[in-house]
Amino acid sequence: MTQQLLVAGGGMAGLAVAIAAARAGWQPRLFEQAAAFSEAGAGLQLGPNATRRLDAWGLGAELERVGAFPRELRVRGACDAKPLASMALGTDFAQRYGAPYVTLHRADLHDLLRGRARALGTQLNLESRVAAVSQSGDGVALDLDSGGRAEGAALAGADGLWSTVRAQVWPGSTAARPTGHLAYRALLKQRDLPAHLRSDDVTVWLGPRLHAVTYPVRRGEWLNAVAIVEGDLPRSGQTWDLPAFGADLLRSFEAASACAELKDLASAAPWWRLWVLHDRAPVAAATEMARGRVALLGDAAHPMRPYFAQGAGMAIEDADELGRCLSLVPDGGAQLPAALSLYAANRWARNARVQRRSQRNGRIFHATGAMRVARDAALKVLGERLLDANWLYR
Length: 394
Description:
The protein has 394 residues and is α/β, with parallel strands linked by helices. Helices cover 36% and strands 27% of the residues.
């Protein structure tokens, strides 16, 4: 009898682990609290460490259909717009790492993952919020808000930053903390933009206490724009997907003496969406990612600041490794907790390293004073050697 993997959460991580588990011979049953599958946000970047795995899952051609393939990563000063460093992202980069660098709309990747998960037989359940988790020696059970109950051999907690699974199985774990950084996001149709704002590249703008990133999505037809500034929490108390005005972002750019190009970018989209960024301390041990027959992955295990563009990439890596470990115990028997412990042992240190690098990048990106001068000088001298993360992509 095919063993069932219960999956809490229908975002990127949940759908990815459903695919990996199905490929390992398990039957995934996914439970999403929302009434419809959707993906908030705008764009994301996937390095070859992620696209290599997606290609192995049969999604390479689909990525080509919906994604964009930037030719270059460019770093510029936010105040004077002068070039600081660059790195080629085209054919040579893809050949070096065996897979391309792709930028795409979050909803497009979500649709690809959902379609693949469904094609592999995943049972997708909406309006199924997890209320309680319990486990015994031979299985796991979920109690749902709707009054239903689901049982399986194992549980993958992929229910995001405010994970119920984490709270239930790791009682006393620290809550996600606000970072003091606010992320403005917008999608702009390239044909409607003035020529100086259109781009087929990834461009990072570094300024005092802020930075911005732009890159193409949806075959290059749209430009994804993200600006992250240091600021106060919204008075509403909400922290996720809030409406914002381009005028608010423009004031932040003006306060930092940002260049005209960034000011034009803020004005190009009168409506923006706003997120208050949260994270947790880097994972400190394998026991923080697996306990008994329950494993965490993605933001439920290691929420990341977006300064290394690896949140989705680490979730995909988690899913791939969890699927590999599940394949070692296809009957879901007594050795399953050991297999989940192996998953955690193989993942925690790499996730922690990426979390730390993301935090460090944020400090460097937003540097002021002497640190800012030293950063710019190092980028001009070392260039691609600083930008290329060989240890991550290879």
